[in-house]
């Protein structure tokens, strides 16, 4: 009886992959080679942080009911959605790839790239742009009114040629969150070339090894 009880209470672990904009849950397949545990690709439907807050919280609460330990791998805006959702209480360890850590700053940059102003955005509420999602006044206000507080031990991979978040922005976040940072010289926001993926794989293997031996 005691042996059966111990077996039933054995620790269960899951690795959850959260994709970025334009990505999909099937990308999780790449990460299965690095973990003995189950790797799950989260096929979320939310397109903004207020929708994601509910969807992510519900999903990770479901994971927490089934698993004793959750590891998070999140890419780009997927990292922001994760942090904004308040799921850090469920996460044991996180690995972020090109994370959006300051969405307000990115939106302000996009306003500048579009050749417009905050005042104009407030007046029009929505301004279409030809380089991404439409600019939204409500979106900017939400981001400003919901500061991120991330308390999970986190390793970050960042490309020095990332045009969405500056190195200073990433370093500022790492300082606040006590996250470790690895920079690939010359890499863009999207890690996808053979060289970039090899660098990513080596970074992740090293980070996992360090976590296991800490």
Describe the structure.
It is a single chain. With 214 residues, the chain is of the alpha/beta class. It contains eight helices and eight strands. The protein has helices at 2-8, 49-66, 77-84, 103-113, 118-124, 137-145, 167-177, 194-212; strands at residues 13-18, 38-42, 69-75, 93-97, 126-127, 135-136, 154-159, 180-184. The chain has a six-stranded parallel beta sheet, sandwiched between helices. A two-stranded antiparallel ribbon has the order 5-6. α2 crosses α3 (77-84). It is globular. Residues 1-10 have low confidence and may be disordered.
Low-confidence runs: 1-10
How would you sum up the global shape?
globular
Query: Approximately how much helix is present in the residues?
Result: 40-55%
End-to-end separation: 34 Å
Radius of gyration: 18 Å
Largest sheet: 6 strands, parallel
Strand order of the largest sheet: 2-1-3-4-7-8
**What is the ordering of alpha helices and beta strands?**
HEEHEHEHHEEHEHEH
Task: Chart the SSEs and their pairings.
Blueprint: H1 2-8, E1 13-18, E2 38-42, H2 49-66, E3 69-75, H3 77-84, E4 93-97, H4 103-113, H5 118-124, E5 126-127, E6 135-136, H6 137-145, E7 154-159, H7 167-177, E8 180-184, H8 194-212
Parallel strand pairs: 1-2, 1-3, 3-4, 4-7, 7-8
Antiparallel strand pairs: 5-6
Helix pairs in contact: 2-3
Please name the defining characteristics of this protein:
214 residues, alpha/beta, two-stranded antiparallel sheet, 8 helices, globular, disordered N terminus
Q: In brief, what are we looking at here?
A:
This protein is α/β, with parallel strands linked by helices and 214 residues long.
């Amino acid at each position: 009886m005691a042996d059966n009880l111990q077996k039933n209470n054995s620790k269960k672990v899951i690795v959850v992959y959260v994709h970025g904009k334009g990505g999909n849950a099937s990308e999780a397949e790449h990460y299965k080679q690095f973990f003995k545990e189950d790797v799950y690709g989260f096929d979320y439907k939310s397109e903004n942080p207020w929708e994601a807050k509910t969807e992510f919280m519900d999903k990770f609460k479901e994971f927490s009911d089934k698993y004793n330990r959750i590891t998070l791998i999140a890419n780009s805006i997927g990292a922001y959605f994760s942090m904004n959702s308040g799921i850090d209480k469920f996460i044991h360890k996180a690995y972020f790839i090109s994370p959006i850590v300051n969405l307000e700053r990115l939106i302000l940059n996009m306003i500048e790239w579009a050749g417009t102003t905050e005042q104009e955005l407030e007046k029009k509420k929505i301004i279409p742009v030809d380089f991404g999602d439409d600019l939204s006044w409500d979106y900017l206000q939400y981001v400003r009114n919901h500061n991120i507080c991330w308390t999970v031990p986190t390793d970050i991979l960042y490309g020095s040629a990332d045009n969405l978040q500056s190195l200073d922005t990433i370093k500022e976040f790492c300082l606040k969150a006590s996250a470790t940072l690895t920079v690939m010289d010359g890499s863009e926001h999207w890690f996808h070339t053979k060289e970039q993926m090899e660098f990513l794989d080596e970074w992740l293997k090293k980070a996992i090894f360090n976590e296991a031996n800490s």
